[in-house]
Amino acid sequence: MNVLEDARATADQAELFSTRRKSAYVRFDDSSLALVAHRNDSACALRVLRDGKLGASFGESPSQAGLLDSALAAASFGQSVKFGFATEQPACIARTYNAQTAMMTAEDIVDLCSKLKSRIHQAVPDATINMVCQVESSSRRVETTEGAIAEEASTLAELAVELPFAHRGTDTGARAVVMSNDPIHIPDEWIAQLVEERSWGEQASSPVTGRLPVILTPATSNLLTLALVSCLSGHAVAKGISPLLDKTGQKILSDQLTIRENAGEQALPLARSFDDEGIACQRRTIVEKGVLLGFLTDLSSAANLGQPSTGNAVRRTLFSEKIEDAPTPSFLGAIIEAGSVPWRELVRSLEEGVLVTHMLGLHSSNLLQGQFSVQVTGFHIRKGKVVGYLERTMMSGNLFEDFTDIRGVSQERMPTAQGSLAVAGLAPYILLDSAQLTVG
Amino acid sequence: MKDELQSALIDLNVDYADIRFDEEQKTQITLNGRDVAQMAPFSPRGGHVRAYVNGGKAIASFSRIEDAREVAQQTAAAARLSAARCTNPIRLAYAPIIEQDFPIVSANDPRKVSLAEKHELVAHYSEMAAKAPEVLMTQFMYGDSFSHRTFANTEGTLVSYDHLIAHILGIIVGRRGDAVRRAFFAVGGSDDYSRLLQRDELLRQSLEELNELLGAQSVKSGKYPVILDPFGAGIFIHEAFGHRSEADTTQHDPSLRERLTLGTQLATPILNVFDDPTIPERGGTYAVDDEGVLSQRTQLLSNGRVSGRLHSRESAAEFGEPITGNCRASDAGYGPLIRMSNTVIESGEHSLADMISSIDNGFYVAGGAGGQGGIDFTFGARWARHIRHGKLGKMVADANLSGNLFSTLKAISMVGNDQTLLEYCDCGKGSFDGVQMLTRICAGSPHIKIDSVTVGGVS
To answer: Rounded CA gap, B442 and B444, in Å?
Structure first.
């Protein structure tokens, strides 16, 4: 029995969100194959509106007994909501499925990793290699009683390699990640950069406490987009707590920063055509040369603001990998425009500064106000050259102060992914004029 | 269920295999201000298989019990593939065979409370917070989770065991002028529903903290002596040391293994730390882990020396140390990892007044805004209060602390006599298929004084 058909008889409206996922994964520890894993699961979330009140329930499949009854029971306690579920059919334009990727077996992945291991060992025979590689096929579907049906299949191959520094016990090492909808291809330059980064880890070198120029790698641009999500969320705006509340049309960041939301961008490995409420994703400019142009909404926050949804609902939060969280607004494809400078030129331009490759503890910061305070790993730069890896270094400040003075944005961009938020992105290297570094 | 799991393991032609199936009942109520953002009772189910062949390992997760046999056979085949390519064979330490059931018996079982009563309770706290002056946004979440797990392995262990936990979490956001600050409310963290009731006083305290925080200046970054409250100290010991007591986080790092050799003087001699899943009715309490190993107390630091670490059967074999029963999975979607349970700093002899009077220029730090740990760790404070010339002063905001495991443990100069076990806590840890969030744990500590910690704030 179709749960939505049943819902038509007992609820005013209903929405069914469902996912299927099949993956194969291998892990190498200390250059040796340590694990082969498979996953095959499904999940669904049913939301109903009855008498204008919202209720939800979850299960492994739409046919699971009790799904509708649970959602209706929940709705009987709900307060009135101002929105209805999606009514229009979004065009599914994202091309994220590759049949060749979907066919890859665990044995294929082991072969891929073994060959990569050999290539790295040719360059650095003594390197210890830790490596994980996962290939996933998945599908996502949203159907409502109001006529919207949207379904998209995707494949994703992810490879992460770590070469621990020779002086281990530091939690640091050279790391690189590649993500693709297509089967992974590793160019020689990718290996060369990884090996070069490992060579930077021969000794520790930290600056003294104070303000210094900071280069953020594409991966650590999360600092910008994750903090911005808190402030750009339609909920934060509707409740009046966003520091950007009355700043539309005003300059909030450096004029070197342009940030677009375009989840359908083909260069994104996690591209998508519709959000988790079945609303078509839009190509929008959120920040144009530092000037704020718009916010991110889901159905609920958009209704509270008296606007249509921007199609930015996601069913995962920072600390969940499940679909059991209520939809919330987020970037789904955060694209930071490239600059004109090669990233190595940004490094060469520094008399002294740091290159930040990873951060710890961003979630503990008061992001709602743009505050950040994180422990960073990366490298110390002097006279345009890397002189060692950072130890015990904390970076703190405010997004709307430290990102207003930017020296440069690189011409190179790399795909990024805030995995637990399902947020895809493309980001360049960004050179901040300065940020506060506290060295312990 | 037991028969189905045992059948799935027949004739796999492996050295070892186990299978687990989880049947859960959950309730989740989320209130944004006075509005019900989401209310949902739900019942996820799923299973997980592990297989070992000639030192090779494979795992798999699945949703439907009908697929158990097929998934077990595929996993056995994947373990043979792994064996053919691995150069560091994986072994398992011996574990006694158990055939027993471990049901939860709760005097105040949250499953016996109606959805209406749960909604009324969380709505009461949400309403109380939303009415406070300068509060612009609140989010209160009620959650309870009952998990019935059944586990079987090819050695003959066959157990079923339950987990039950209920909690309420609240985030309260206030604004005064340009200052936007948050306060937190967390109660519960056990199978006892009554712990969620009549907690208005704690919420009032959170609202008073928020009121003061809205007028507070941001902390000036630097290195300071700090006193951590039991919440902060509990998070500190969890993030800074606890994760490095999990053997899988050091297993592949020879240098770190050497630095954490049993008997090493790692911390100040006044520090004693243990992990104990047998403490009754706490977030990290359980009878048996997800490898079918009975839970037990493990002393981790004795007078500052490393005296034990937390193990799975794999890591115990690798280290040549006893199994400890700490291998747990968040839910059926994941394989078990080594996890802390209830991790506690033992009481010392100092009073809080002694600690405050010993500081000329430093901070009293109230923890609770999350943390992250490796050899270097960081965690956020709910708030901090300046200490000048031995006296508590004004509250400061945006204090995040960071440090290094080795130097910070040696910089603990005073341990309080006022140990407190925290209420609701959870922990995330990376695994092959993402981060396993929301594994229930508990931390506990008295106040502690650390002579020097890096505090991130404004320049």
So the answer is: 7
